[in-house]
Amino acid sequence: DGGITQSPKYLFRKEGQNVTLSCEQNLNHDAMYWYRQDPGQGLRLIYYSQIVNDFQKGDIAEGYSVSREKKESFPLTVTSAQKNPTAFYLCASKTGTPNTGELFFGEGSRLTVL
Amino acid sequence: QQPVQSPQAVILREGEDAVINCSSSKALYSVHWYRQKHGEAPVFLMILLKGGEQKGHEKISASFNEKKQQSSLYLTASQLSYSGTYFCGRTIRGGSNYKLTFGKGTLLTVNP
Lengths: 114, 112
Known about the structure:
By secondary structure, chain A is an all-beta fold. Chain A is built from no helices and eleven strands.
């Protein structure tokens, strides 16, 4: 079955540690996105990538980094520079032209900083 | 930066209608609507494209006013399964890139 797989589902980390969230899709989608979800804040865009080897900052990119070396993979690293990293992280992908096509979301990764 | 949704929350009885609004301060290329149930990933409902084309859900409709940079989602004869948080997303252009950002959501509760 085609879809988006995020791992791990739950992650705990100590302050000062970097952590990488995995996002893999087998939908053959060109565009991939990372969103952060906090209560009452909706979905805020962290980074997005429209093609392999290219990505753009979203609205809250500070303290995060990404790579897009393969079409199917778009990992997100939460660095120690992110001041408040505890949140629910959603990865998504889509097909179509850049301004069309529905987003398919993964099941999310919940990060808790202790 | 985020599109603005209203209302923040609405409570309905089964069978009643609701309208959720979404506005943007920036020019829109397309508007997306998604529904998220508690503990689940958002699910696609509708996309409205510049020029009026609409694709999506058979029981939920939406409008897109390009001039006013606004969209509205219409839920008629609501069912219990309509409960959830509704997000509007907008695509805006930055050079050769198209950024898809979402509002803060509208929590819809449908009671029997």
